[in-house]
Design brief:
alpha+beta, 4-stranded antiparallel β-sheet, 15 strands, 15% strand, 624 residues, Chitinase A, domain 3, 52% helix, 5 domains
Length: 624
């Protein structure tokens, strides 16, 4: 039968029938891609098209933003996995849907308005803050825009703005919703509370051997050693090689004479300040400054302790007003300057004059300079020699002795924290060196680990301690303490629940506290998320607001305290929402209504996507 079909397909009648089938498939199966949308159209919303150039510009902008976060440009497959093409299409389709509605309403933008928008766009302003045609042309060329595309985009933007301002300008959060939010966020409560301690419960019994063994069996994963690798290490860097160099006094003195002009230390000043945050304090210091009263006397009369900013060079003072004032005063003088938080009095307590270090003061720095210069000339040759010795299986300690380089030992774990024994290895390299150590195989020649600045590190594996379960004898004390703490906490929680039951039955917290040899305390009023000073943390505040205005409960705070409380006052917010908060909520409500409107508008118009053209476009421009 199949042979018959093949023969028929080769005949003229079969070929004609195949042509009709192809046309039928093209007409019904892929008309959305070829016939309806066209190869240059990525998507269509109603009668509005999203073309390839428009999509590529928006997609490239999104990819650039993502690349700055990831540190690499995602491929097409990676971008699709992150949903970037879909997000770009949805954003463009929202604009297309609004364009379609604007066309239905017959909205337009005059040439005069477009010209005004162009002149007001700061992107095209020159140094004088005015529109520059040359900058306009260069910016469009760099972005791959034509002037027609730019003005078309700005016209669409202006028409969309007309729609949004007309339809959503009056949208705001309903007053009832604002009141509910205010009641939720700004209501306050005050509690009486007691803190339960170990003294309020009996000391738990010491765990038996059987209990210790059972606890270890249940928590064995918490009591395991980590793999440890004992290594010998030798590092070669400018710093390590420079430290092996010694110099005669004459060489040091000659170098000092050569560079002493560059070793000058800048003038430094010890700066203090007092915030003049009350009218009385400000008046006191202003009158004292006019009368010539010294700063210490004024600070004593104001009852304040000056805050010290330290002993700083002018280059270290980032506040220009403070630097100008402090370095224009004599020693002991003060001035009043403005600041973000208001007026402040700035005092110069001491002045260290600009100076030139003596030979002895600069000796360590000079030796480091000479050593580094000598090491820079030798490091490449010594690197080659060490590599040859390593290839000949020379031990690290003999190599270190030959070149005067120290050899370090450490028991390294996967974190690499133990590599801090290497004084010339930056902490940023710990992880990479630890990975190399844990990749190494015992008995094999291990290559060096290249580091920054022509530095290298070699190591030899001496011993490998694999991870294992710890025995009861090794962790007996830890497990005993854990069991005792667990039992103690359980007893405190049970006591807290008992006290809450008694409070609910009508007993007074003060009477219960007296039985426990403690006193109840009263809190300041606090909101649902805790107090501003952090004394009432979020966990305690959540527990307090979990019930009504006479709520009673117990909770373990974030700091581990066992608290029993009862609400003694529940106050509604006295003030309405702040204007800034209300404006932000109105904006959120407006954005939500706008988003739902545009989404419904797009759904009504119908979004059709040319998936074939879209993927081909992405692969051609960004790769698979």
């Amino acid at each position: 039968m199949l042979d018959g079909l093949r023969d028929f397909a080769k005949s003229w009648p079969g070929k004609i029938l195949g042509a009709f089938l192809l046309v039928g498939v093209a007409g019904f199966g892929i008309n959305n891609v070829i016939v309806d949308l066209g190869s240059n159209t990525v998507a269509r919303v109603g009668n509005e098209e999203i073309n390839a150039r428009e999509f590529l510009r928006a997609y490239q902008s999104q990819i650039n933003a993502m690349s700055s976060q990831l540190g690499t440009v995602p491929t097409t497959s990676q971008a699709e996995a992150m949903g970037i093409p879909s997000a770009v299409l949805l954003r463009l389709s929202e604009g297309a849907a609004l364009d379609g509605l604007a066309d239905q309403f017959g909205l337009g933008v005059s040439d005069a308005r477009l010209g005004q928008m162009l002149r007001e766009d700061p992107t095209f302003h020159g140094t004088l803050g005015t529109f520059e045609p040359a900058i306009f042309s260069q910016t469009l060329q760099r972005a791959g825009w034509t002037e027609a595309e730019y003005f078309e985009a700005r016209a669409s933007e202006a028409r969309r703005g007309q729609l949004i301002d007309t339809l959503f300008a009056g949208v705001a959060l309903p007053a009832v919703a604002g009141d509910l939010i205010n009641d939720y966020a700004a209501a306050t409560r005050t509690i009486d509370y007691i803190t339960l301690t170990d003294a309020n419960v009996e000391t738990p019994a010491e765990p038996t051997e059987e209990e210790l063994a059972a606890y270890l069996a249940e928590h064995q994963a918490e009591y395991r050693t980590v793999e440890t690798r004992q290594v010998e290490m030798l590092d070669l860097s400018l710093a390590s090689l420079a430290a092996t160099k010694t110099f005669e006094d004459a060489e040091i003195a000659a170098e000092y004479e050569r560079v002493k002009d560059t070793l000058t230390t800048p003038e430094r000043r010890t700066i203090e300040q007092v915030a003049l945050n009350t009218p009385e304090r400000q008046a006191l210091f202003e009158q004292g400054l006019a009368a010539g009263t010294d700063f210490a006397t004024l600070a004593s009369e104001a009852g304040v302790t000056p805050s010290s900013l330290g002993t700083l060079a002018r280059s270290q003072v980032t506040d220009s007003r403070l630097a100008e004032a402090a370095f224009g005063l004599p020693e002991g003088g003060f001035a009043i300057i403005g600041g973000i938080g208001g007026q402040r009095a700035v005092h110069v307590a001491a002045i260290e004059s600009q100076g030139e270090p003596t030979l002895e003061e600069a000796r360590a720095d000079i030796i480091t300079r000479l050593g580094t210069n000598a090491a820079r000339e030798e490091i490449s040759d010594i690197l080659d020699q060490i590599e040859e010795l390593r290839a000949a299986f020379q031990p690290l300690d003999e190599i270190g002795e030959r070149f005067g380089l120290p050899v370090y030992e450490a028991n390294v774990t996967a974190s690499g924290a133990e590599l801090s024994v290497l004084p010339n290895l930056p902490a940023s390299e710990y992880s990479r060196v630890a990975q190399a150590i844990f990749r190494a195989q015992d008995g094999q020649l291990i290559p060096s680990v290249p580091l920054g600045g022509n530095a290298h590190l070699w190591f030899d594996l001496k011993n490998i301690e694999p991870a294992r379960d710890q025995t009861l004898d090794e962790v007996r004390d830890q497990i005993s303490a854990a069991i005792s703490e667990q039992r103690n906490n359980e007893a405190l929680m049970a006591l807290g629940e008992t006290i809450v039951t008694r409070l609910q039955n009508g007993e007074a917290l003060a009477d219960i506290a007296m039985e426990l040899n403690t006193f109840p305390q009263i809190s300041s009023p606090f909101e649902r998320f805790g107090s501003a000073d952090g004394f009432i943390d979020g966990t305690l505040a959540s527990a307090v607001f979990a019930g009504g205005p006479d709520h009673k409960g117990s909770v373990v705070t974030e700091s581990g305290e066992f608290i029993v409380f009862e609400v003694v006052d529940a106050a509604a917010p006295a003030d309405p929402l702040e204007a800034q908060v209300q404006a932000s909520l109105d904006s959120e409500a407006r954005n939500a209504v706008y988003g739902e409107f545009v989404s419904a508008l797009r759904d009504d118009a119908g979004l059709r996507v040319n998936q074939q053209a879209l993927r081909q476009l992405l692969i051609q421009n960004f790769g698979e």
